[in-house]
Design a protein that fits this description.
The chain is mainly alpha-helical. 72% of the residues lie in helices and 0% in strands. α2 (57-82) crosses α4 (100-124) and α5 (128-154) runs antiparallel to α7 (168-187). The longest helix is centred in the C-terminal third of the chain and has 31 residues, at 258-288.
Length: 306
Amino acid sequence: MTEQPQVPEAEFRSYYGQPILKMPRWKEPHLPAYLYLGGLSGASAVMGAAAALTGRRALARAGRLAAAGAAMGGTGFLVAELGRPERFLHMLRVAKPTSPMSMGSWLLAAHASLAGGAAASDVTGVLPRLGAAAGAVSALTGPLLATYSAVLLANTAVPAWHEGQRQLPFLFAGSAMASAAAAGLAGTALGAPADRVPAARLAVLGAALETAAAAALEHRTGLVGETYRQGGAGQMMRAARWLAPAGALAALAAPRSRVAAVAAAGLLTAGAVTTRFGVFRAGPASVADPKYVIAAQRPAPPAATT
């Protein structure tokens, strides 16, 4: 005869069914697009600077143009998210080191200026030394721009984002690398095969990091990890799980095939975009269900002793 439990299973409820935390006010597609474009710009700046140092002019130009274009586009989506353009300028009035939003605004402004200057000089041929210097410095701001948004999300009280504070920076870094590789492969598809070799290697490395970090985010964040496997977020994360590796496989053939280079660029881009949308959608889903909020506030159980 088995013993029956005397205490019913706990049911997570909130006061009158209202969310315990305020729902994030960020919107689609503004914030996910900003997350993607910021990562693309940051990693592309690094790729462009590295290509310039190694004498791969076509890849360097592709990286610089992608960095500048993505920075401008990301700024546009951020301004649209804020509602009024002057709000972005207001954030630049004060530099607050303890605020990821304040530091991110200054970082975006600095990086966009550097990337834009490097791209303009590369295309026009005006002030080549100054343009090269701007491109080199943008390679320093690039990694920060590519990953700071992960810190921005993790710094909130949103359970899915806060509990993923260790995985999100690696996920965003891998996604950014894959995005930049896609831009490099697309930009050099009509050029010499040697120019596509570094971009193909970057694609494989970025896709591998993105896939591994996404798996860790889903399975090492406790109960909150369910939000990355269910609903709209789950659909996006599952799509990215197939798109990123498929793009990496196509990238392996990119140096020998222009068609493979274009296919890899499309697959990697789609994987990076769906990853950002999946991460974004998991946030509101975790706020809407009280069990994720309560579970995130509980202390971790003590380690077992022998």
